[in-house]
Model the fold of this input.
Amino acid sequence: MSITTITGLGSGLDIKNLVPALVEAEKAPKQAQINIQKARNETQLSAVGMLKSALETFESSLLGLKSSSTAFDGYKATSSKEGVASVTLQPNATNITQGSYVLKVDNLASASKVASKVQADGISTRYAAGELTISIGASGTPHKITVAENSTLDQIRDAINDRLSSVGVTAGIISDSNGARLVLSSELPGAGNDIMVTGATAGAGTGVDLAELNIDGTQQQSGSDAGWLVQSKDAKYSIDGLEMTSKSNVITGVQGLNIRLLEEGTTTLSGTGGNATAEAAAGRPGVNRQRPGATRSETSRSSSTSYATWQSAAPPRSAREPRNSPEHSLRTPCPDSRSTAANDSSGRSRLSSGRYETTS
Done:
């Protein structure tokens, strides 16, 4: 028995071929959109891959710089015995003394420290009203401390600290079986910066005369008398046998260097100038630098290369969505195009890249 195929349910239509054709026609716009999105995604992945590769190259260059201990060496100074003297570069130094030098420290600069004569009644000693005049050096500014009648030694100490701590002078009390002494210390080193104290009682009154607290900082303390415990003096040192002095233990007279004297002794100072390693490192592969002397137009041409690369990777016009598709008016411009569009007389929107897209 033979089987007869009836097409079109009696209409004469070729349903076997018509149905797949209709399905394909329905699928085509969406498939085109999928193909376009796929191409865009592939382009973006390619760009990300290029960026990752560039970053890896840059990282490799940085690691190379890090592994080279002299990559960024500029001016440098060292001391063979940091306990005798330390050395650092002066801020913004552009040139330093080159070579090696033998530094010999004979003595450090010191600040004055003095003590009064023994006060037999200790810290409970009470003084007559008056003034204490304290100065640093013979030509130093005198500082006057007013003393009320029956003030004790510790009250005078506190008055000195309140008045003179801001100028680097502090007071203390040292006691033993013989009594108490008023001790003053200065933070200003250098010869001639001796502490001088003069007491003057104001008229008749009760209490010990303030002259009992007089101190001549140029005289060494001995027995129960007043005088210096540490004499103010300059630092004495020599560099390669050249003898010099300084009122401070920080020496700045050597070009480009700050030398801090720490103790008596001998050390070797070494100064080296900058090298070209850092400059050469700046031109290593993976670091995109503008070529010396390059013009702005050359730099612009370099920037436009990325757009040309993207454009060449974009899908051809035939592979894009139909002009009547809903997605057509929402097309995303290429990454390097500007968002501002200008309309020409034909009603088309012209992107900065020069291509036309229909907006209707």
